[in-house]
Design goal:
By secondary structure, this protein is mainly alpha-helical. It is built from six helices and no strands. The N and C termini lie close together (8 Å).
């Protein structure tokens, strides 16, 4: 494999990993609040509550860092290729959700994860 390919693959994985961590932080933050949204006013109050939680801001910062890395990826790789490999995010989110949030991965979702992995392998193989 060419060094450039491994470098791009590493950057895409990095952006997906950073974004996964940010999403976990945001999910845990929103889960820490007791709320029931049944109106625009309550939704607005929820947003205000969330913005008072420092972890939420850290999650936003991680999303911003992920975006910066992604923009760098786009300077080095074709969009179709990079976006296809960016599907690693779905795998990372599913696994991290199961491990850290104790969410259950049902068999059909495992099949979907396998399909995403297969797609990533095929796209990566087609690049060379």
């Amino acid at each position: 494999m060419a060094r450039g390919f491994i470098f791009i693959l590493s950057l895409i994985f990095l952006t997906d990993l950073i974004d996964t961590i940010g999403q976990l932080i945001l999910k845990r933050s929103i889960n820490s609040l007791d709320f029931h949204i049944d109106s625009f006013t309550k939704a607005f109050k929820l947003v205000v509550q969330l913005l008072k939680i420092p972890r939420v801001w850290f999650g936003f910062i991680l999303s911003g860092v992920s975006l910066v890395v992604w923009l760098f990826v786009l300077t080095r790789a074709e969009l179709g290729f990079a976006f296809s490999l960016d599907s690693m995010r779905y795998i990372l989110i599913a696994l991290a959700s199961a491990f850290f949030l104790k969410e259950k991965i049902v068999p059909i979702r495992w099949l979907g994860i396998f399909c995403v992995i297969l797609g990533i392998v095929l796209v990566a193989a087609g690049q060379h």
